[in-house]
Design goal:
It is a single chain. With 238 residues, this protein is mainly α. It folds into two domains: 127 residues, no CATH class; 84 residues, Cd81 Antigen, Extracellular Domain, Chain: A, CATH 1.10.1450.10. It has eight helices and no strands. InterPro entries: Tetraspanin/Peripherin, Tetraspanin_animals, Tetraspanin_CS, Tetraspanin_EC2_sf. This is Tetraspanin. It is found in: Membrane.
Length: 238
């Protein structure tokens, strides 16, 4: 009886981790594609220049693949050490995500202030050598969200040491339009505009976070259930 339960949990655990591993492959593939072809997706931060969308996806995908691989092998081999390792790794990820979420909501005001200061520092890298990704990212944000600067368009005055903004701030794009009068530029602050857009899509973000948490809890349940079944089977056989 114990052996039959073990086989059922084994195949469920393997199927779950195979999907987990394939999901990691997909995230890693997207990250590599972005890094290789899309310089647009870059960090806007001057303090964390490596914190780009591509790098985040590559690291996340690699980590998910590694955890899924450990889970698959642990299920196939019915190895207690690998199953326990999978459980511990997934539990650490779950606790880390929960801690980040709590800290984010607890210190949201401080994070807001720091983020705006850091983004303003990043403006000084706009158009400089080796910062094509950051330049393109700001151009896309200002064009798509119809905004200019972090707090307002005057943020760019400190960058250029003149009354001018990037051409992506213009109501009607044209070469050197950033040299024209302020009446021809977007007035909305990019930080507040993007923040408002994220708040409007908070439900989708929340559903994604909830689904991620449920998948992780399911993985933890499978891992611990199979670990207990393996222990029971070994005890029974002994």
């Amino acid at each position: 009886m114990a052996r039959g339960c073990l086989q059922g949990v084994k195949y469920l655990m393997f199927a779950f981790n195979l999907l987990f591993w394939l999901g990691g492959c997909g995230v890693l593939g997207v990250g590599i594609w972005l890094a290789a072809t899309q310089g647009n997706f870059a960090t806007l931060s001057s303090s964390f220049p490596s914190l780009s969308a591509a790098n985040l996806l590559i690291v996340t995908g690699s980590f998910v693949m590694a955890i899924g691989f450990v889970g698959c092998i642990g299920a196939l081999k019915e190895n207690r050490c690998l199953l326990l390792a999978f459980f511990v790794l997934l539990l650490l990820v779950f606790l880390l995500e929960a801690a980040i979420a709590v800290l984010f909501f607890a210190y949201s005001d401080k994070i807001d202030r720091y983020a705006q200061q850091d983004l303003k520092k990043g403006l000084h890298l706009y158009g400089t050598q080796g910062n094509v990704g950051l330049t393109n990212a700001w151009s896309i944000i200002q064009t798509d969200f119809r905004c200019c600067g972090v707090s307002n368009y005057t943020d760019w005055f400190e960058v250029y040491n003149a009354t001018r903004v990037p051409d992506s701030c213009c109501l009607e794009f044209s070469d050197s339009c950033g040299l024209h009068a302020p009446g021809t530029w977007w007035k909305a602050p990019c930080y507040e505009t993007v923040k408002a857009w994220l708040q409007e899509n908070l439900l989708a973000v929340g559903i994604f976070g909830l689904c991620t948490a449920l998948v992780q809890i399911l993985g933890l349940t499978f891992a611990m259930t199979m670990y207990c079944q393996v222990v029971k089977a070994d005890t029974y056989c002994a």
